[in-house]
Design a protein that fits this description.
heterodimer; A: alpha+beta; Pnp Oxidase, Chain A; globular; B: alpha+beta; Beta-Lactamase; 3 domains
């Protein structure tokens, strides 16, 4: 999940797909569906502040990255491949938990209604936290 | 000033989003403008304009909301996978009241089941005003289905129960009706023992084996806590609760605080249970038992099911109390099937251990405690004199039985004994012979052995 905020500190959330670390390991990119991310993209344009949380449905382990957006733009081939790979893995993990494939597919298909376009958000990570539920949630990694 | 404008999507039309079936997420923002995103196992809908989050651990979301009350959540509707954004404003933290009690009962029950009762403690309920609720994608709205009406089924349920005579028939009819009328195909009723320290299963439906006689400790696990607190416990995604509990458990272990963890308790019932609804059976403030519904389907018991089943549980409890209170000492059915002569060729050895009143038939465990003591008494009379007919009254008045004051509970013990015999023994049956009478039906020669 990707979180941003506007100039009045009002937060905005959106589901993000296909995380990728750049080859030089200086930035991370994610993709969001354009149809559901108008405010998110406006906020990133405005101030660039963002937080992204990544969780594994299989065991609830999670991390959060605080960072600053350096670029947004139409998703390219490698970004879309990462989105596909993420969705496949997400389906597989959820299948093991008894969640049907159709449900996970509907989750992203509904985000694409009105526009099939995905947008890449590239950001520099500034702080990383353990976000696994429990007493250590929020501690720096 | 509060914005009294109607929400784009009314919360009650997406009630299933607030059941903890699909995890939600929340984004807050610090005074310095740093957003923070975390996942939530459940968002509680308090009313049409308010939601609540359980506060167990101090975290950044809480710190941020004190600095900046604006928060956004995304909730997901089970089934359709629609996502909704909730724009919220933090109002206050409640540490008592009905919402707190309800959330605490659920959390404590899950914590106890997973051995985390010293880790998961509800400190408060953070209450948020809902400024708006809207679909994440306006283009993908799907039709909102009206909620099911249950008046017809409730009427049929009460009608079936009103035709029952005796507790045994009442329970069997009730559990069968839950399956027929409401589709709840796995259910059981547990009764408290004399001391009120344990619950034992007295009747079940849709389980193989039936589980009759299985016990849980009052105050432990979801069933034990529902009994102790006399409150409903409803869980919609046991797998998710367990996953989170295990993640927290690993964190606690890593910190070297293993001593605050307890054992995870196995749930009686379905091996793949995903949803469970436990309802206390209360009559005049007295706990007669608990009714437990289980399903292998995630999200099977929703808020509406809980309301309907509350009515069912109250009616069942009132009917049970009524049945237990009617004087069962006047036999109404005269004719009894006579026992055929026991076949001498086939013998059975029955052992009774005085220490816990456990009974073994041909070295197979049958029961213990009061049902064991009762059964032993009946068998002794049967073997010594051939007597096969008994009345509840004589059992209750028999000082040598050493029974506690269990007028209300004698019937539940007899039901347990009868069902255990039906399940575990082919040649002895305890047949209810009209109100207050029992018939012991034995088809083998018995040898009795009393052990310390």
């Amino acid at each position: 999940m990707l979180g941003t905020r506007d100039s009045e500190l009002v937060p905005e959330l959106v589901r993000a797909w296909g995380p990728r670390v750049s080859r030089d390991r200086t930035s991370v990119s994610l993709c969001v569906a354009r149809a559901v991310s108008a405010r998110t993209l406006g906020n990133l344009e405005d101030n660039g502040r963002m937080a992204a949380t990544f969780a594994s449905p299989g065991n609830s382990t999670a991390i959060q990255i605080w960072g600053r957006c350096i670029e947004t733009g139409p998703a390219r081939r490698l970004d879309l491949e990462a989105v596909e790979a993420h969705r496949d893995a997400f389906v597989e993990l959820n299948k093991g938990l008894g969640v049907p494939r159709a449900f996970i597919e509907a989750l992203w298909q509904r985000e694409l209604a009105g526009s099939e376009q995905m947008v890449t958000v590239r950001f520099v990570a500034e702080q990383i936290f353990n976000q696994t539920p429990g007493p250590d949630a929020g501690s720096p990694l | 000033m509060n914005d009294a404008r109607a929400l784009t999507i009314p919360l009650d039309s997406i009630a299933a989003c607030f059941e903890g079936i699909v995890p939600a997420s929340v984004c807050s923002c610090s005074r310095e403008g740093l957003p923070n995103v975390t996942y939530l196992s459940i968002v509680h809908r308090l009313d049409e304009r308010h939601v609540g989050l359980s506060f167990q651990f101090f975290n950044k979301t809480r710190k941020n909301t004190y600095e900046n009350p604006r928060v956004q959540m995304i909730v997901v509707r089970p089934g359709s996978a629609e996502q909704f954004r909730l724009d919220l404003k933090y109002l206050r933290t409640e540490t008592d009241g009905p919402a707190f009690d309800r959330m605490r009962a659920r959390l404590d029950a899950v914590a106890s089941q997973t051995g985390m009762s010293r880790v998961f403690k509800l400190r408060g309920v953070d209450v948020y005003e809902v400024l708006d609720c809207r679909p994440v994608n306006e283009e993908s709205r799907s039709e909102i289905l009206p909620q099911a009406e249950s008046m017809r089924e409730l009427e049929a349920f009460t009608e079936r129960l009103s035709a029952c005579e005796g507790l045994d028939a009442l329970l069997s009819t009730a559990l069968e009706a839950l399956a027929d009328l409401f589709g709840h195909r796995h259910s059981f009723v547990m009764f408290p023992d004399e001391e009120g320290t344990r619950l034992y299963t007295g009747a079940s439906y849709g389980f193989d084996p039936s589980g009759v006689g299985s016990e849980v400790v009052v105050g432990e696990g979801m069933l034990g806590l529902a009994a102790e607190r006399r409150s409903v416990v409803r869980v919609t995604n046991i797998a998710l609760d367990r996953l989170i509990a295990r993640a927290v458990r690993s964190g606690v272990e890593r910190r070297g605080e293993r001593d605050i963890l307890e054992k995870e308790i196995a749930l009686p019932g379905l091996p793949e249970v995903a949803s469970q609804l436990v309802l206390p059976l209360l009559s005049r403030n007295k706990l007669l038992g608990v009714l437990c519904l289980q399903s292998a389907e995630t999200g099977r018991f929703l808020e509406t099911d809980e309301r309907v089943m509350q009515i069912v549980a109250r009616h069942l409890a009132a009917s049970m109390a009524n049945t237990m209170a009617t004087d069962p000492d006047e036999p109404r059915v005269a004719a009894l099937p006579s026992s055929p002569e026991p076949r001498a060729a086939s013998q059975a050895a029955i052992k009774h251990y005085r220490s816990d009143d456990s009974i073994f038939i041909d070295d197979t465990y049958l029961t213990k405690g009061i049902p064991g003591r009762l059964f032993w008494k009946l068998l002794q009379a049967f073997v010594a004199t051939g007597r096969a007919a008994f009345t509840n009254k004589e059992i209750r008045l028999d000082a040598s039985m050493g029974l506690p004051d269990i007028k209300d509970n004698l019937e539940t013990r007899l039901i347990l004994l009868r069902r255990r015999l039906d399940e575990r023994c082919e040649f002895i049956r305890l047949i209810p012979a009209g109100r207050g009478r029992l018939h012991l039906d034995v088809h083998r020669s018995l040898t009795l052995e009393e052990l310390p």
